[in-house]
Specification:
The protein is elongated, with a radius of gyration of 22 Å. It contains nine helices and no strands.
């Protein structure tokens, strides 16, 4: 006897799909998924932001939001994977530079505080750090750390969105943020566990959401239309399960 897939037992009754496929920006289902991604990134970014590593650190909330929005738009575009990756990396570098330059503390203010002066200061400090690194010398300049951290936050947000929208892989969406959160907390053991609890709940909801969307795609190939707001009911059950787990 053949074994049926588990979601087949819970599939809704077959009926003709009388709804035309609409753009993603008009679908509340897509906005629901994006909202869950926001919830997933909140504890990660909040933990990093509360660490207050250096004074020149720009808003990590802003960089994460840029990563989510840009990643979502690119992931929903018809661009192939290699073009999307190149565009995403270009966006990551551009947004990182803009936000870092905005919060850069100028040592020499005689040339003003415009973008040209900030770029000159940025380039000079990065050159000095590279020379110190090559010479195996010590450098106390926090600017390279700021650049790496800001770029990493953008890429984590971008990969999280990409794994959700393109791959529909829940673990690839959850693991990058979880790794960053646990790493940051390990260096700052005094941080409360609320961020971890929030992240676990958001992860359970996102994993459930992606499992549902994958099942809904299979139902769509079978010309099966799920009941209205079924995805909301699934998330409500998942939230109860997450509450029990934590």
């Amino acid at each position: 006897m053949s074994v049926r897939a588990l979601d087949d037992y819970f599939a809704p009754a077959t009926r003709a799909n009388d709804h035309k496929e609409q753009p993603w920006w008009l679908s509340w289902e897509e906005w629901l998924t994006f909202t869950l991604l926001l919830f997933l990134m909140v504890p990660v970014v909040g933990s990093l932001q509360s660490a207050d590593w250096v004074d020149e650190m720009p808003s990590l909330v802003a960089i994460a939001l840029w990563g989510l929005v840009i990643g979502w738009v690119i992931a929903k575009s018809p661009l192939p994977g290699w073009a999307s990756a190149a565009l995403g990396m270009a966006a990551a570098i551009t947004v990182t530079l803009v936000l870092v330059l905005r919060t850069l503390l100028l040592v020499d203010t005689t040339g003003g505080d415009g973008w040209r002066a900030r770029w000159s200061e940025f380039w000079l400090r990065m050159q000095e750090w590279v020379r110190a690194f090559i010479a195996k010398d010590f450098s106390a300049d926090p600017l390279p750390f700021v650049v790496v951290l800001v770029l990493a936050v953008f890429l984590v947000a971008f990969v999280t969105v990409w794994a959700t929208a393109r791959w529909k892989n829940p673990w690839a969406a959850v693991l990058p943020g979880g790794f960053v959160l646990l790493t940051n907390i390990s260096y700052l053991p005094g941080q409360p566990s609320f961020a971890v609890v929030f992240f676990v709940v958001a992860s359970v909801l996102l994993v459930t959401r992606l499992q549902y969307t994958r099942a809904a795609e299979r139902w769509g190939h079978q010309r099966v239309q799920p009941p209205d707001f079924m995805s909301v009911e699934v998330l409500m059950v998942a939230s109860i399960v997450a509450g029990v787990l934590v």
